[in-house]
Amino acid sequence: MKKRLVISNPSPIDDLTPSIRASIILISKFAFAAENPKELSIKKGEILKLLDRPGNGWLLVKFVDKVASPGLVPSTYVDIAINDTVHPITLSWLHATGSGQEKSWNESNFLDLQVKQLLRSNSPLTINNRAYPVGCSISNCLSFDNRYWYRLDVTYSDHSRSYICRYYQDFYQLHIALVQCKDQLSSTNATSNPQETTQLPKLPEPIPSTCIDDKHQLMSLLLKRCNDLHVYINKLILNRNYQTCETFLNWLDLDYRNLAGFSVDGPVDLTNDEINEKVLPESLNLFKEHRVETPEHDRESKGSRGSDLPQRTKSKNIYNHYQQITFIDKTKYPQASPVLRVNTSVANGISKSSPKEFSKANRSTQESYNSTSVSVFSTTERKSPEALWSDSDFSFSKRK
After folding, report:
1. Which residues of the chain have pLDDT under 70?
2. Phi, psi dihedrals of residue 368, rounded to the nearest 5°
3. Which terminus of the chain has fewer Cβ atoms in its 10 Å neighbourhood, N or C?
4. Nearest residue to 111 via CA among 228, 211, 24, 201
């Protein structure tokens, strides 16, 4: 008995622009007879290449081993024979009919589990022909038309980046939408991997209206909220159940509610202010303006902190000791010219000896070396240097 599938009419092939990045090989499960020139007749077991997924339950394919024009076939009539490890797709995504009731992952299917395993290492560039977020930064809070908005700097798996504008109400609506998806994801993970949690992170609370009058307290609260929202979004990204969730991806999309934003293929060569101006022109950077308005307060606070610190005392090093030695009372030595001399002739003789000779034959020399000391003489008490010191000795003096 021929299998019948109730689906909508396919879109004209002329209106389709292939957008599949992956190289996917399909195999037909059932025979299909084309009813118009835009469709493709296939038999069971034939090998096909996926060209596009226009939706509504249809796929644009072509034969791998035959010369024929591409055509449309029902999506549920084929299975994945060879998946792409760089741009993999899931079977549930391939068989989607556009009714909105399909799950992102079919944990009972081996191909979907294989793709999810690749996702744990963030190795694919895209999944289901779509890049997924791998990181997000929220460090800018701006004001436009008397409303506060936050700039999200999102990094995707294909190394592209997007800079988007989101209000706190948008975060709240995202959280409500994810709560509705939580039960579905929990039932999916119950049998496949119970260790993967579907617990949502805590959404930061709104700022109380009573704090609006106190500007410094308001800036502190906005700064804390930036950090809390940053943690909230990154926890969603680290959770594999929400990282590729259609609801979350649509929320990060540039077309979400026609909010401001732009995307680039790689790192952008723009300053922070230039990015803010490009996202939503004429916005006021609250953190920057707050810092600019209070430079004197910052200097005063730094000065007050510095005055409370203990003063550093003058270090006592060898030069201080040397000065103490050379500063001799002239009342005791009126004609004295202090000279500091160190006899190193013994030390030089020891250093030239071998370790063996030093240990056995020069014990008396070692005792003489250990007794080497610093002496202070006056010009009236010393003899000539030639009579007391050999050529290898050195002397230096510092006159007061």
Report:
1. 1-18, 98-112, 122, 184-196, 210-212, 289-400
2. -65, -40
3. N
4. 24
Among 159, 174, 93, CA closest to 127: 93
Of 70, 92, 119, the one marking the end of a domain is 119
The b-or-e profile of 31-66 (16+ CB within 10 A means b, else e) is ebeeeeebbbebeeebbbbbbbbbebbbbbbebeee
**308 within some domain:** no
If you count them, how many residues does the chain have? 400
Residues in contact with 266: Cβ distance below 8 Å, sequence separation at least 6, in sequence order? 159, 160, 161
Structural domain including 324 reads 318-397
d(CA 325, CA 339): 10
- Tens digits of residue pLDDT in 35-48: 999 999 999 999 99
pLDDT of residue 379: 42
CA distance 256 to 166: 10
CA 71 to chain centre: 44
Contacts of 165 (CB under 8 A, 6+ apart): 149, 150, 151, 152, 259, 260, 261, 279, 280
DSSP character for 76? G
Per-residue tokens: 379: 């010009």
**Do residues 170 and 258 make contact, with C-beta atoms less than 8 angstroms apart?**
no
Kindly report the number of other CB atoms within 10 A of residue 94's CB atom.
Answer: 19
**Which tokens hold the place of 124?**
């694919």
Give the whole-angstrom CA distance, residue 33 versus residue 72: 11
Q: How many CA atoms lie within 13 A of 328 on its CB side?
A: 19
CA nearest neighbour of 168 among 154, 148, 153, 151: 148
CATH no. for residue 202? 3.30.1520.10
394 CB neighbour count, 10 Å cutoff: 11
CA 147 to each of CA 169, 208, 247, 284, 304: distance values in angstroms, whole numbers, following the listed order? 11, 15, 25, 10, 36
Any idea what DSSP says for residue 211?
Answer: G
